[in-house]
Structure formats: C-alpha cells, structure tokens
Fold each of these.
Amino acid sequence: MTDAFGAFNRTFARGFLTGRTALVTGSSSGIGQAMARGLALAGAKVMLHGIEAPEQAETARAAIAVESGVEVAYLNGDLSQPDCIAALIGKTEARLGPPDILVNNAGVQHVAPIEDFPDAKWDLIAAVNLSAAFHTTKAVLGGMKERGFGRIINTASAHGLVASPFKSAYVAAKHGIVGLTKATALEGAAFGVTANAICPGYVWTPLVEKQIPDTARARGIGEEEVVRDVMLGDQPTKAFVTVEECAALCVYLCSGLAGSITGAALSIDGGWVAR
C-alpha cells in the first residue's frame, strides 16, 4: 500500500502535466473553465475557447495564468462552423504545440416539446454538442497516436445515458457523444490514447441557469419548482454537482494512473442514473 500511495502522490504533485498542451472547448465559464484551471494547475499549457471576444475572456485567462504559472491563451470561435474548428486547432498548435489533451466541453441547449422544437435549434445543438467533437477529435487523434500519448475527454451528461422530456436535441447529441467516445477509445487503445465521457447531472452553470425559464414554460410550472422537482428531483443528493468535482475527474483521467480507463461514460450525478 505504501508504494501505491507514493505513486499516487507523485502523480498528483503540482506540475505532473508539465510539458503537455491542453485544448478545452467551451472554457470561458462553467465546467470548461474549471477543467481548464485544473489542467493548468497540474502544469499543462492551456488553450481556452469560447464565443466571447478576447477582451471579454481576458479576466478569466489572466487569473488562470497567474494562479498556475503556465501559459494560458484564449481563442474565440463558432464551433458550428468546421472552418472555425480547423482554425482553432491550427492556432493552438502554433501557439502552444499540438494538443496532448482535448476536452470537448462546448455545448448549447434549447428546451421545447418536439412538435414545437425549432429546426434551426436542432441543427445548432447537433453541430456544437456532437459534430464539433468529431471534427476536433479527427484533427488531433492522428498526432496523439504518433506521439504515443493522448487524452480525449468529452463532456457528455446524465442525458447521454437517460432521457428527459423537452430536450430531444440535447439528449440525442449527448447519447451520440457517448457513442463517439467509445469508438474513439477503441481506435486509440493500442497507441496510448484514451477517450472517456464525463456524464454530469445538473451542475450550476450559466447554461443550466438559462434553462430554468424555458423549462418552466415548457412544463407549465414555476421556476422554483423547476429547480426543486425537475433539476434536483432525480438527483438523490438533492444538490447540484460542482464544477470542481467535474474538473477533478477530468484531471485524474489525464494522469498515468487512468491509463486503463478508456471508453467509459463516467457518471457524476448525485446518484441520478443509479435509479
């Protein structure tokens, strides 16, 4: 046991990802920002991404850089556009080096009954939540294989494992992310590349906060009821998952001790899918 704990402590000493480059999409706030911060504190150079203008993301970028002491950059881009994804990958490689760690976290949401669901919203959610992850993975996987190391982490959701009403596009995309993760894991397994999906329950983020009024309208209930009965109703802990919990799991999956964890859909949902 002493040797095992010694290896654990050495792995998670500050700086164990020194020399690695991480690209985290959708990291200007919420889960993605917490993951980026965790990876930077572990020593990785980090490329943040969001749809905000660079000056709007500067406070977050600078804070992570100062706290971690590593190079942290930011690029904005619309992940529904494949050309923007190609540019994001190219600029990351030019600035920080080829990504050793790819976190596909960017996501959008819309809540409505299927018969009222706008076609444009379906297309946007499918593009950002699923297709973008395919395009980024395609762009980096070959290089990871050649270098003999890679960590691909996809932020799925409890909705990648179970469904809820009024979220048809999101549920479909997140189920797709879990499938993409498994296929990627099989293709990378012999080359030192792992791929895993983190499946959070409800996490208090700007994306979740914005869902409350839409869900209230779709269900015909009050916003307090949405939080109590819809969002936390299926989480036995009756508490929101924290962004720090998601970040800690992300960082662990990037370690050498997680080398045998691949193709997994890892729930962090307060017991939601255990029901």
Amino acid sequence: MMDGWRRVDSNVALPTGYEQGVWLGEFIQRQWDELDHPCSRQVTRRALDFVDNRLARFDLSGAVLIHGDAHPANVLHDLGGTAPTGFKMIDPEGIVSEPAHDLAIPLRGWTDELMAGHAPQLILQWCHQLAAATGVDPVPIWKWAFIERVSTGLLLSRLGDPRGCDFLDLAGLLAPLRP
C-alpha cells in the first residue's frame, strides 16, 4: 500500500479526503435519520465528531494518492511474481488524502475477529501495529476506521444486509474508546 502513496500534482482532478469526509458525514447523518436510528446516537455522534476532526486537520500539502478502498477483497496475491510485495491491489477509488485514511479501510470490515472478544483492545492494537509499520499516527487511523465502520454499517442496513447490524453493534462497543 505504501508503495502506491504518491504526491499528486495540484492540477490533477481527483476527489480529496476532505470531500470524502464531507460526503461521509452527510451520508451518516442522512442514513441514520432515514433508517429510523438503527444504532445509538452516541455511535453516530462519535462518527460525526471524527469526521469533523479529520476535516479540520485535512492538509492538502501532506496528502498523497491513496487507494481509497483497500479492503481485503481488493488485495490479490500476485501469482505472476511482478509485484515487489507479492500482492497487487485492484479497484482503486483514487483519493488524495492522508495515509491514515487508506490504512483504516481494512479495519472497518474485520467484524468477526473483533466480535470474537476484546474488541476495543484489539482494534487499538491493530492501529498501533499499522502505525509502527508505516510511521503513521495511530489516532487518525482509528478515527477513519470508526467513520468507515459506521458508514458501511448504515449502507449495509440500507441494503437489507444483516451484517449492517453487526457493524453498528460493534461500533457501539468501540464508540467510548479514547485512543
């Protein structure tokens, strides 16, 4: 993933992490209202507070091109041996944002692993492992992961997918965390 992070010329017309954050905040609020509050207000409030935090700290000068949807299904083993890491990423969204945004995406979907026990400790451990491996602050990783978990849970609920409840229930367990 880090190999793909590159500075982007300001003339390139790509969505930014700021624009994505605005969209996510509006989506979370709208879906929570339209779905008649499928999770606690604490969960949505926390997600929206994190959106506000990331928007306030968005810095285009430090932003890089990120994949934007680097979940496990978009990471393939390179059987041809051409990728230096042995893996290739597919289906990029292409967003100019902070690296923490990219690192958070895989964390949003590991619901089964987190529901197996000790979710708050485990999610923070993963954020710190990613931080140690990349030099990226673990707190923004955690905040983006929470935002993405809530928005994905709401989307799945909107689509009638029962996994949406699991995403949102887990977000309820994680909302009190203060990393």
Amino acid sequence: MSKTIRVIPRLDIKGPNVVKGIHLEGLRVMGKPVDFAKYYYETGADELMFMDVVASLYERNSLHDIISETARQIFIPLTVGGGLRTLEDIKMVLRAGADKVCINTAAIKDPNIISEAALRFGSSTIVVAIEAVKQSNGQYLAYTDNGREHTGVEVLEWAKRVNQLGAGEIVITSVDREGTGDGFDIDLVKRISEMVSIPVIAHGGAGSKEHVYDVIHRANCDAVSVASMLHYDYLMKHDTSAASQSEGNVEFLKSKRAFHNFKTATLGDLKNYLIEKGISCRPPHE
C-alpha cells in the first residue's frame, strides 16, 4: 500500500470535558481536552478531531475557547464538528483555530451547504461525517445528532452524493460498533472507500492494534479515527482528577476499572505495529 495512512485521535467533548460513550450514548467523563490533545500531539498524532457531542441538541458549537487554547499548543491539523449549521458557524470555528470542519446534520438537512462551504473555504477544509446504523435487511441508514436522529437517508447513496458535492473527506462511523471495542465494520468502510474518490476516515469499533490494521488492510481507507483504545491507555497512566465534575458520569473516571473489550495502546505502540505490518504511516515521536 503506497498511500500514507493517518491516525487521528478523536476527542468527543461535552461542556469542558472529553467524554466517551458506547454507541455514541452513556457518556463517561475522561478529562480535560487540552491535556489529551497535547499528549496525542507529542506522541505522534497526525491530526486531531474534536466533536461537540451535544452541540446539535442545542444548535450551537461551544468549542471555540477549547479550540483556541489547543491551537496555541499543537501544530497538526485540527478538525472540529458538532452543531455547525451555517457558513458563518464554519467561519467562526476556522477563525478560532480549526483547520477543517466536520458537518453532518446540516449537510443532510441542506446538501447544498457542502458545495457552498467547499467553494468558500476550500474543499480540503470540509469533512462530512456519516453516522451509519445497519438495518435488519443489511441496508445502512444515516443518523444525525450523535446517532440519535433517524433520517431515512441510505448511507452508500449519500456518500456518493457527498463526494459529488465537493466535500474533501468523509468520516464514516459505525454507530453499532462505536465504543464497543469489537472492531470496525469493515464491509461498510470498504464499500464506501470503493465508491468515492475522496479520502475516507474509518471510525467506530477500534479495540486493538489488530482492528486498526484490519480496517486499513481490508477496507482500503485513508485514515483511522481512534478514541477509546487510546483514551483508556491515557487514563491508566495519568491523573485526570482535574476534570470538571459537573458534566457527565465521573464515577467511571474515579474507578479506573479494567476496560473489558480493549487492548489499550499508545499512539507509538499503534503506529509502530502498523509500520511493522507494512502500513505506510508517519513514525511516532516517542
């Protein structure tokens, strides 16, 4: 495989904290976003993805201060999503320090925002998130609002249209696999990778280094977005007691209990493993 694969830690954010759920629900507090971002930057992240996971409920993105603080300390591309409804919203997030924006709900409600945003800010700036839920008949339907809202939109056709409208990338999330550590939905990622000409980022299900290798090797994606596997490794090695106690479930954080389905790893562990397996990616810093 000649293309260089990117490894992108994803930070889901609610209020002042990084949170993590299962199937995008049941959010558990992890710690402060800037601490995670700085650590991942220092250990070899190619990019970072910040998602305001409740923004769509309140129709606003509240990450501006976090983005500004993070952008002063890290020097890799930062993608920001959640609650971005208009071109003005996109402009404000980019002005705060984001390099790319990630849209989902707004794009499904008005697909023209993809082409309008690509024209105004550049195609490479516009990432479209697709949250896919597999139906009993094998079909995939797109959801919005962090996997809560059913749209009736068929995922594969939607991916093709997103490509045609000028998006720079697609991040495909299997809601069924997200947060489980059971591995990626390789069939879903492969089908989308084969039908679009823009980069595809696989997200949802990474529980081990082997899972990450499998989706790259078998589904031909261009990047992998990983959260739980890296976050849980970070939690076991760092004091995160400075996390705000006011948002979400902090009991999980206090317990530091075993993370059942996850073979946790650092970014360095993961990247070195991929390189050993013949995957081209930027070597870690550590």
Amino acid sequence: MSGRVLLWRLLAALPLLLGISLVLFCVIHLAPGGPLDIYADNPAVTPAALARIAQAYGLDRPLPVQYGLWLRAMLTGDWGFSIRTGRPVVREIVERLGPTLQLGTVAMTIAFVASVALGVLAAVEEGRRLDRAVSMVTLVGLSIPVFWLGLVLQYLLSVRLGWLPSAGLESIGGSSVGDRLAHLVMPAAVLAFATSAGWTRYLRAGMIDALRQDYIRTAYAKGLSTRAVLLRHALPNAIVPAISIIALDLASLISGAVITEAVFAWPGVGSLFVESMDGRDYPVLMGVLMMGSAAVILANIAADLIQAALDPRLRS
C-alpha cells in the first residue's frame, strides 16, 4: 500500500467516523430512560435542581443542538464530564484503559501463540486424530458463552478449590506482582480461549491451502527441512487471510472486553461501559464508543498494511 493510498484511507475515515458518531448519538439519546432518572428517583432532588442539572449538561436543548455542541467539543479535545461522577470523560477512560490493555495484551498473546501452534499442527495432521481433536476444541470454544465459562472457572478454581481469587484487579491491601498475576489468570484464560478458537480455524484453513501450493513442493524439493518449510514459507502466506480477523479482535480490546470484565469485575473500559450504560451516562458512553469505532477503523487500515507487507500481490 503506497503512502498516497494510506493517506486517502485515513482521510476517508473522517466522514465515516462522523456518520458513526451521528448514529450512536441518536441511538443513545433515543433509548428509554435518561441520566436524569437517577436524580428523579431521589426525593431530596427538587424539580428546580433537575432543571439546573439538565441545563448544565445541555439535556434541555433539542437533540440536533446537543449533537452539534458535542461534536464541536469533541473536535477540540473536550470530551465533556461524566454525569455520574462529574469527572472529565478523558480521565475516566484513561484510568480504565490500563487494566484493559493489561488484560488484553496477556490474553491476545496467549491466543496468538496457541492459535499458530494449533493451526499449524492441525493442518499438518489434516484428517487425523490431532486435527479432529483441535477442531473439537475450537468448536467448543466458539459455542460456549464467555460468561458461562467464566462463572464455571470461578466456581471451580475459586469457590471449590480456592486456588485463585474470583474477581477484581488485586486483593484489598495487596498490590504485589504475584497478587495481580493471580487475579489476571482466569479472565485472561477465558478471553484467550474464546478468541483463539476462531483464530485457530482461520489459520488451519490457511495452512491447509498453503501446503497444497506448488511452491511448498518446490521448497521440499530443494531439501529444506519441514520446520523451515512450515515457518518460512507456508505460515506467512497462511496468516494473511486471518490478519483482518485478528486486527479487528485486537481493536475490540480498546473499547473493552465487556463480558469478560463484567464477569470478573475487572476495572477496565468494558466495566466502565457497563456502568455508564446502566446510569445513562451519555458523555462517557459516547467517548468509549467513539474510541472503539476509531480503533476498529485504524485496525482495518493496519491489517491492510500488514497483508500488503506479507503478500506482494496486494501492494500497489
């Protein structure tokens, strides 16, 4: 991909983000309920106080005006303030981004290594017991709901066996590396298992197709070892079709692994999204959703760049 094409893709992403922001803004504001419902249930909050809160956040204005004000503020770097906490939206997100990236980095590293290993082994052993076993495991990973797997692990490893803490980032009063790693094991394992299932199937299919190509037979004819043929010739070509899927899954980490974080009470962006959704915290919801949308668009562009680097046929 040339620099000119890359620049065009980045410029084309701007109107796309604008359209996404308009749709998200309308959907959020047209959903039943609103942020003032929380205050309205409190008998100590008077109608006059509710009116002042609505005016402070611009909730008393027409929806098109609200969107225009939000868009202008967003473009100037002002993401607004949380209706629940009164803190800047940027600070709310940044504080939760660290735990999400920590969980996502560990989980995706495990998922990638496992997917490559299992995908290559399954392709080499196509139609045999190992291949069928890998296919069964990936099918289970795609079929089991993430929340159910998380609850089962919590019951077995925390409640029954007491090996690992059930939830949270760290124990109360404890912030050692070992304590944090113990809290990280289960959510990372659940997220990695669910993610690697799909990746493995894509890599297996890509490896099977690659191993049937003429250049693989040529590589063997030149006397290259099986390891060299698989890792240097087959794998780089097999991974190209899976790059887009992997990139999109990595981008989803930016907006948070919502279900996994909710099950394990992991204080990341996913948990922040759930909390904000429950409280109809419009500014935080828009901030998280727009950050996630931008991440997905950039991940698509990055995937195209990586695919072009791995496959010369895609370069232009």
